[in-house]
């Protein structure tokens, strides 16, 4: 049996689906020096699922990811991409405690938890 994740879901190392913790957070990614707003949908020790706004990433792209409360940007490689949604694999896996801390910081406020139509907008950077 695995540990419980930040969102109350079971958290198992080595299980691709079970170790993902659902999150909802606006994040920033950098690709070749340009900053782009994005949205995180889940996180694990090995990576996260992101959605971009108007930018398409491709498998093999190297990016830097800025997450809420993370002490530094995280280097990642796009493992797969389907339109604006992509899976990013961290170049250096995170510790379980780091993932829990980040996942807690990336949870929606209680008022938005059960209202999908009130999803957070991705901030626009000009």
Automatic annotation (TrEMBL):
Q: Where is the PilZ domain?
A: 16-102
Name the Pfam families on file.
PilZ
> Which protein are we looking at?
PilZ domain-containing protein
High-level lineage: Bacteria, Pseudomonadati, Pseudomonadota, Alphaproteobacteria, Sphingomonadales
């Amino acid at each position: 049996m695995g540990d419980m994740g930040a969102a109350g879901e079971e958290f198992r190392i080595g299980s691709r689906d079970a170790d993902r913790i659902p999150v909802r957070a606006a994040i920033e990614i950098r690709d070749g020096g340009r900053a782009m707003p994005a949205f995180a949908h889940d996180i694990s020790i090995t990576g996260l699922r992101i959605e971009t706004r108007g930018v398409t990433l491709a498998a093999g792209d190297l990016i830097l990811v800025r997450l809420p409360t993370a002490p530094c940007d995280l280097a990642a490689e796009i493992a797969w991409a389907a339109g604006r949604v992509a899976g990013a694999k961290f170049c250096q896996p995170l510790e379980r405690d780091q993932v829990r801390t980040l996942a807690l910081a990336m949870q929606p406020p209680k008022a938005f938890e059960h209202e999908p139509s009130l999803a957070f907008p991705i901030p626009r950077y000009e």
